[in-house]
Amino acid sequence: MENTQLLELAKKYGSPLYVYDTDKISSQYNRLTTAFSGVKNLKLNYAVKALSNINILRFFKDLGAGLDTVSIQEVLLSLKTGIDPKRIIYTPNGVSLQEIEEVAKLGVQINIDNLSILEIFGQKHPEIPVCVRINPHIMAGGNSKISVGHIDSKFGISIHQVPHIKRVVENTKMNINGIHMHTGSDILDIDTFLRATDILFDVAKQFDNIDFIDFGSGFKVPYKPNDISTDIEQLGIQLTERFNEFCTEYGKEITLMFEPGKFLVSEAGSFLAKVNVVKQTTSTVFAHVDSGFNHLVRPMMYDAYHHITNISNPQGRDRYYSVVGYICETDTFASNRRIAEISEEDILCFHNAGAYCFSMASNYNSRYLPAEVMIVNGKDYLIRKRQTIDDILQNQEIVELPKKAAKQVISA
């Protein structure tokens, strides 16, 4: 998307504003399918948690993707798109048996990541095929908070507990139809990822009725100019060869699954914010924008880098700014960042704002959630209205306190 188009959208819909380019989403989806075109049965399940606007989910459904969900709410949202329940996989963590049973009634693929629930579910519902999430004890990912396959992680059943899984299957006569892993996000080292896939192949060989192996995702995308990213094409060559060899040995053409989220939508997203104040202090020049970590929490939560450009003055002389928000505590998007000269009322563009940005937004400080716009074939569509005070109050119940109690509170 060009700067002029983004500026027009900011003027039309106001700021802060999320904008998603579906051309980029399609390009990333096609890039991944092409990289694994040598696999007979390939299925990409878009990770709903990355960006869950229903219009984005409908777009992925039309592309042919399945949907990867982690909660019953994401399952229900996915079903609202009209997708076949069989194209949804549900991979929760630490949820109740009751939630898993409710999801099972909806006809989606269940993925269980702990022995306790696996055994109870198998005793009660041995007729329902189940995938199991394996923890391969591989440290992968760009941040400790998003590395989920190591030995101390809360996710998955340890590879050392596979004999326990087999005992549960033998005792309950349940059907394990899939093996799953997810080692973490921002994976750059292909060899580390492939080492984890070899572990998964070894586990899958120990079960007779496997229909698919889900290798998760977490592929790294570039966050800044000239940044490095996962070599998807090379991974496709190497993993395709190993997967096809496994199918031959297993005696069955099973399905290779991925659950990409960030890889598909991160670069497609732009977050637009207006500069309220340029503030010079004794040590720093602050650019205060009309947003905060209530709208984009990744820099504060994960120390994530988002490239920031001044689309109102792209050819301006570069200066150094700390870009900060309007939340009443430390609220920093970027420190001492080189950006084209900023003036009040300028629009700043935060790049790579498609994944885990709006989906993690909140109403902290009672601020409204931003609007969302989707670009399809060059045309803009408003896919979420900006909130109002009525939206914030919608589910709040105003109760009348007894007058005596109110006086006691006041006097206290």
Structure description:
- The strands form two sheets. Strands 1, 11, 12, 13, 14, 15, 16, 17 and 18 form a nine-stranded mixed β-sheet that branches.
- Helix 6 (115-124) packs parallel to helix 7 (162-172).
- The longest helix has 19 residues, at 232-250.
- The radius of gyration is 24 Å and the shape is globular.
- The relative contact order is 0.15.
- The protein is built from 13 helices and 18 strands.
- The chain is 32% helix and 23% strand.
- It is an alpha/beta fold.
How is this structure best summarized?
With 412 residues, the chain is of the alpha/beta class. It has helices at 3-13, 22-35, 54-63, 72-79, 97-105, 115-124, 162-172, 190-204, 232-250, 262-265, 298-302, 389-393, 403-411; strands spanning 17-21, 42-47, 66-69, 88-90, 109-112, 130-135, 157-158, 176-180, 212-214, 255-258, 269-280, 285-289, 308-310, 318-324, 332-340, 347-350, 371-376, 379-384.
